[in-house]
Design brief:
Length: 287
């Protein structure tokens, strides 16, 4: 069958990019044939430039017709591109663009992928998808979300056997889970250290307790946190600190709430926890 016959015989020609004057047929993994121009393909992709160097008339790829057709829309000028309306489609496109070396498509696909990753409820699943796509920024965003979960929610993520975890080795998966636990412990120790140092005139109050023991304020703060992550936004919010002071049962804590010394300690804890978040993300295990 000639190239023109392939094009005219296709029942999907109105839904996909294919041209009667093309000089090469690209066959998708699901058997759909695209009649295309080797010149356009070679200019847009080093992969096709090498694969088409000897002018073959047909070439098979491992991408589906749906994925390849959208990738072609970044090579050929099209008035409107197909919607990247799911994380599965975004993932397939990014993997395909990377394999076929269609660099022009990657920035746009990453924008869609990042948005879809934010909608994935389980941050471990989002992390595994980002690993599959070799997307470091997506991995970092997902790990940040994992750090901000309370202990119960994090445990639920761990037992959720997402299909995408098959793209991650058990060793890296376990490293990430253990790393989160260690990071949370370090951050909670920071909370204790800051509150312990604040007993007395320059801190929240609680001067009646020796510095070696937790202050009333710290006790109340940790009760309010109740297994929550010290990295969560609420954990270092003014509201959280005010609630701890107001309900601590310590007149000195409640009295000093809003004072310069009190605000200084709040700012100190917030800065230390924020710094630890960034340092922790920089040291996060990567597959």
């Amino acid at each position: 069958m000639s190239i023109s016959e392939i094009t005219s015989a296709s029942p999907q020609r109105s839904k996909r990019l294919t041209f009667p004057d093309g000089d090469v047929v690209i066959k998708s993994v699901d058997g759909v044939k695209f009649c295309l121009h080797s010149m356009f393909l070679s200019r847009a992709s080093p992969y096709f430039r090498d694969a088409l160097a000897e002018s073959p008339t047909t070439l098979s790829i491992t991408e589906t017709a749906d994925t390849f057709n959208i990738l072609l829309q970044y090579i050929y000028p099209t008035p409107q591109k197909s919607s990247i309306n799911s994380i599965e489609r975004a993932t397939a496109l990014l993997v395909g663009a990377a394999k076929l070396k269609i660099e022009v498509a990657i920035p746009s696909i990453l924008t869609h992928l990042r948005k879809h990753l934010e909608d994935v409820v389980n941050p471990l699943r989002a992390w595994a998808i980002a690993v599959q796509c070799r997307y470091p920024a997506g991995q970092r965003d997902s790990i940040r979300r994992l750090l901000m979960l309370d202990d119960t929610a994090a445990a639920n993520c761990i037992v959720d056997e997402a299909d995408e975890l098959k793209h991650v080795t058990g060793l890296h998966y376990r490293k990430l889970v253990n790393w989160r636990g260690n990071a949370i412990t370090v951050a909670r120790d920071t909370v204790h250290r800051v509150f312990e140092a604040c007993a007395g005139e320059d801190g929240f109050g609680c001067a009646t307790k020796p510095p070696a023991t937790p202050t009333y304020y710290e006790d109340r703060y940790m009760q309010l946190l109740n297994g929550g992550s010290p990295f969560a936004e609420i954990a270092t919010s003014d509201f959280m600190f005010k609630m701890a002071a107001a309900t601590s049962g310590c007149a000195a804590c409640a009295k000093k709430e809003g004072s310069d010394a009190w605000m200084g300690k709040v700012a100190q804890l917030r800065a230390e926890v924020t710094g630890q978040m960034n340092e922790t993300l920089d040291r996060a295990p990567t597959p």
